[in-house]
Design goal:
Elements (H helix, E strand, L loop, with lengths): L3 H9 L21 H19 L1 E7 L1 E2 L11 E2 L6 H16 L7 E9 L7 H12 L3 E12 L6 H9 L4 E7 L3 H7 L5 H14 L3 E8 L6 H14 L3 E6 L20 H17 L3 E3 L3 E3 L4 H7 L4 E3 L2 E3 L6 E4 L4 E3 L3 E5 L3 H9 L5 E6 L2 H16 L1 E3 L10 H7 L1 H5 L3 E3 L3 E4 L7 H6 L3 H5 L12
Parallel strand pairs: 1-4, 1-13, 2-3, 4-5, 5-6, 6-7, 7-8
Antiparallel strand pairs: 8-10, 9-10, 11-12, 14-15, 15-16, 17-19, 18-19
Helix pairs in contact: 3-4, 3-11, 4-5, 5-7, 8-9
Length: 454
C-alpha cells in the first residue's frame, strides 16, 4: 500500500514554474519597447535608489565545456580572446543605463553568474568590476557575490575579487560521485573543491555556497549520502539543493541521459534523504531549495521575514530595481521586466549600436503586482494575507478554490484572510504558488514548458 507521502508526490508532481518572477517569462506580453523600458527604469530609479539602492546581475556566458544537465544560457568555447570584447560590451551597456539615472547609482547587491565567470582571467574581471564601480556608490551593506567552477578558480581569482569587495562565493558542485560526474560532463575532485574553499576562507570570504542537484542520472541514496558527507567536511555557510530541471525541449543535451534519470518516487527520496542529512549537520531549510547555517545572513533574513526572491534566487537584500547586464540577463523595475537578447553576437551588435538589446518584456498591471506580492510572500515568508483592499483582486476567489485540495492534504492552513504553509507543505511550494498564477490558469499551456515540480 502506498504511503500518503507517495500519493502526494504523484498528485502534485506536475509541470510548474520556480517563481523567480510573476508573471513567469512564458506569460510575458512583450508589451515593452525601448522608450517605455527607459521610462520604467527612470521612474524606478527615482522612487527607490536613494532609499534602498539597486541590485546588479552580470551574465558571463562562456564555458570551456558543456555540463549536460545545465539549463543556463551558455556559450561553449576554449577561445579566450572573447573575454575583453564581451567585457567592453557589458560596460557599454552599463553606460547606457547610467544615462537614464539622474544621479550616481547606489548599488546594494552585485552577483556575477554564468556560464562560468571564472572562465575570465582575473585581470579581465578586475577591468569589468572597476568599470562598474568607478561610476557608482556601494551601499554600506552591499553584498557582492560570484559563481565559480572549482576547476577554473585560481587563488588569483579569489584574491582579485576579494580586493574588489566580494565576500560571497558560490561553487557549482552538483554531485561528488565519479559516475554521476562523468555522465554530466562535470568532473571535479573533492580535493579541488576543498582547496578553493579553504583558500577563500583564509582570505576572508564570509559566506560560501555550494550548489547541489538531486534527480541527476545514476544518483542513488548512497551517492547523495556520500556527497553530503563530503560537503559536511567543508561546512559551507549555505547550500542550494536544487531539483534537476529536465527540459530537453529547451536543452537537447539533456536527452543523452534521459533513460538514466530516477523516477519521481526515487527523486523525492533523494530530496528527503538530502534534507535529513543536511538538517542533521546543522543546516536549516530556507524557503525553497535553500539551506543555511544559523550563522549565515540568509538564515537571519528568513527569521526576520526580510528574505527576498528575484531572478538571482533568494537574497537578503530587497531592492525594487534589478539591472541585468550581458546576453540573456533579465532586469526588473518592479513594474516591468525585460530580458536581453540571448545570442552573444546579436547582443553585442545592439549594444555597440547604442540600442538596448530587448528580447522580450512585460509591464505589470495592478493584478500582476498584487499576485506577485502574494507569491513572493509564500516563497519567502511561508505565509500571505489579503485582509487589506489593496491586497485583493477580482480573481482571488478563484485562487482560493484551487487551494482547497491542498488544505485537505494538510499542506496549508487558510483562515478568512490569510494562508500559512505548514511544514508538510514546504516541499510543494511551487504547487501552492501556482494557485495564484492567474495568467497560467487563463492560458493553460498545451505543451510542457516548465520542469516538473518534484
Amino acid at each position: 500500500m502506498k504511503t500518503l507521502e507517495t500519493n502526494l508526490i504523484e498528485k502534485y508532481n506536475v509541470p510548474g514554474p520556480r517563481y523567480t518572477s510573476y508573471p513567469t517569462v512564458p506569460y510575458w506580453e512583450n508589451n515593452i519597447k525601448n522608450d517605455r523600458w527607459k521610462k520604467l527604469v527612470r521612474e524606478s530609479f527615482k522612487a527607490h535608489n536613494e532609499s534602498e539602492g539597486l541590485s546588479l546581475y552580470i551574465h558571463l556566458p562562456y564555458c570551456e565545456s558543456l555540463c549536460t544537465y545545465c539549463g543556463c544560457n551558455t556559450r561553449i568555447t576554449i577561445n579566450h580572446t572573447v573575454e575583453l570584447p564581451y567585457i567592453s560590451t557589458v560596460l557599454k551597456e552599463w553606460s547606457q543605463y547610467l544615462l537614464l539615472f539622474e544621479r550616481i547609482p547606489v548599488i546594494k547587491e552585485i552577483h556575477i553568474g554564468g556560464g562560468t565567470p571564472t572562465f575570465f582571467k582575473p585581470e579581465n574581471l578586475e577591468i569589468l568590476m572597476r568599470g562598474i564601480l568607478e561610476k557608482s556608490i556601494l551601499h554600506p551593506k552591499a553584498e557582492l557575490s560570484f559563481e565559480a567552477h572549482p576547476n577554473s578558480t585560481s587563488k588569483k581569482h579569489l584574491e582579485t575579487l576579494f580586493n574588489l569587495g566580494f565576500r560571497r562565493l558560490s561553487l557549482g558542485i552538483q554531485d561528488f560521485d565519479p559516475k554521476v560526474q562523468e555522465i554530466c560532463n562535470r568532473q571535479q575532485s573533492f580535493e579541488t573543491v576543498e582547496n578553493v574553499t579553504l583558500q577563500a576562507r583564509s582570505m576572508g570570504y564570509t559566506s560560501i555556497n555550494f550548489d547541489l542537484l538531486y534527480g541527476l542520472p545514476y544518483q542513488t541514496l548512497n551517492t547523495i549520502s556520500d556527497t553530503i558527507e563530503k560537503v559536511n567536511l567543508l561546512k559551507p555557510d549555505r547550500i542550494a539543493f536544487y531539483s534537476y530541471a529536465h527540459v530537453p525541449w529547451l536543452k537537447p543535451s539533456q536527452k543523452i541521459f534521459e533513460r538514466y534519470l530516477p523516477g519521481s518516487d526515487v527523486k523525492r527520496s533523494l530530496y528527503e534523504k538530502g534534507r535529513e542529512l543536511l538538517e542533521q549537520s546543522g543546516y536549516l531549510e530556507i524557503g525553497m531549495d535553500h539551506f543555511a547555517l544559523e550563522s549565515d545572513s540568509l538564515y537571519h533574513a528568513a527569521q526576520n521575514k526580510t528574505l527576498h526572491r528575484n531572478f538571482m534566487g533568494y537574497t537578503c537584500n530587497h531592492t525594487h530595481m534589478l539591472i541585468g547586464l550581458g546576453a540573456s540577463s533579465i532586469s526588473d523595475t518592479w513594474t516591468g521586466f525585460m530580458q536581453n537578447i540571448k545570442t552573444v553576437e546579436t547582443y553585442m551588435s545592439y549594444i555597440n549600436n547604442r540600442i538596448l538589446p530587448i528580447h522580450k518584456g512585460h509591464e505589470l498591471n495592478t493584478e500582476d503586482l498584487i499576485l506577485r506580492k502574494h507569491i513572493l510572500n509564500i516563497m519567502c515568508k511561508m505565509e500571505t494575507r489579503w485582509d487589506q483592499v489593496e491586497d485583493q483582486t477580482p480573481d482571488l476567489f478563484n485562487c482560493l478554490l484551487r487551494l482547497e485540495e491542498m488544505e485537505k492534504d494538510n499542506l496549508i492552513q487558510i483562515d478568512n484572510f490569510s494562508l500559512k504553509v505548514l511544514p508538510e507543505g514546504k516541499p510543494f511550494l511551487r504547487n501552492i504558488c501556482m494557485a495564484f498564477d492567474e495568467r497560467m490558469w487563463k492560458n493553460v499551456p498545451q505543451t510542457q514548458i516548465f520542469s516538473n515540480t518534484i
